[in-house]
Amino acid sequence: MILVTGGTGLVGSHLLFDLLSKGNKVRALKRKNSNIEFVLTTFTYYSSNANELFKSIEWIEGDMLDPFSLEDALDGIEDVYHCAALVSFSKEDGKNMQDINVEGTRNLVNACLDANIRKFCMVSSIAALGSPEEGEDTVTEKTPWSPEEKRSGYSNSKFKSELEVWRGVEEGLNAVIVNPSIILGPGQWDKGSSLLFKTVAKGLKYYTQGITGYVDVRDVSHSMIELMKSDIVNERFILNSENCTFEFVFKTIAKGLGIAGPTKYANPKMTEIAWRLALLKKIFFFKPSGFTKENARSAHNIKYYSNQKIKEALNFEFVPIEKSIKDTLKHYPR
């Protein structure tokens, strides 16, 4: 039997669908207040048999911060897919991210070691990778992490959560880690990377020329399953289809929506002002800020991510980003 954490998220819901479609018996960890209806909605995007597949999930209540509930969740489990994480670039969520992403992973790794599972797969992020060294322009799985770099709380939490997995490996855990770039796919449109689509749909006027990696959520799920089926252990893999400018992604989404895309270039000075104004709005009008200092600075970063390792290991081919955007928009509410 397979255990999936974070099953109600973008990656987790797609992973549940793929595992169940292949006939696997799956148990999914959920918190008491989790919205599992989103999982059913995801299933309807890809199957006319969505209700039957959804009913076959064995849901179990638990919490990443409750080691005893993890022990119960792991009873009779062979393989574990760890997708649960808090993604935020807000300072207020710093402690919660450390608790959920780091302590939660530590608890799960310890429980997996005690349960003697067969194999463990963790969803990390390119945020846990280093920056290219001088004279290089591409991030690989071996690019060293430097604590001197300016890093978001999320980035630090994912790096530290990976350390918990590598510590588990030293203690006998068979594990693989995947580091997806920005994940595109139909999800909860007001949160995570799916918010990109909603932001453009509302009439985004500005773009930047920063470059980063993007990957389709279906590729993330498929590659995780293939890695778990393989003999590969104790390795990490970047999951990245293409490196694209923000301008290209925003305009491609707008074109798919049939609306005008952003036409004004926002230079670094403009985005620095924007995040400060957003902060003042939050302080004085108690309105949540959707644009942070980390957002502003990453909007101008230029980073290329290599996908060579996963392509060679699994002979894997990624969905092109233009197709990923087109397919995602089929499910966007108009």
Automatic annotation (TrEMBL):
Residues 2-202 form the NAD-dependent epimerase/dehydratase domain. GO terms for cellular component: cytoplasm. One of its GO terms (molecular function) is aldehyde dehydrogenase (NAD+) activity. Transmembrane segments: none annotated. It comes from the Bacteria. Pfam families: Epimerase (PF01370). Residues 132-153 are annotated as: Disordered. This is NAD-dependent epimerase/dehydratase domain-containing protein. It comes from Labilibaculum manganireducens.
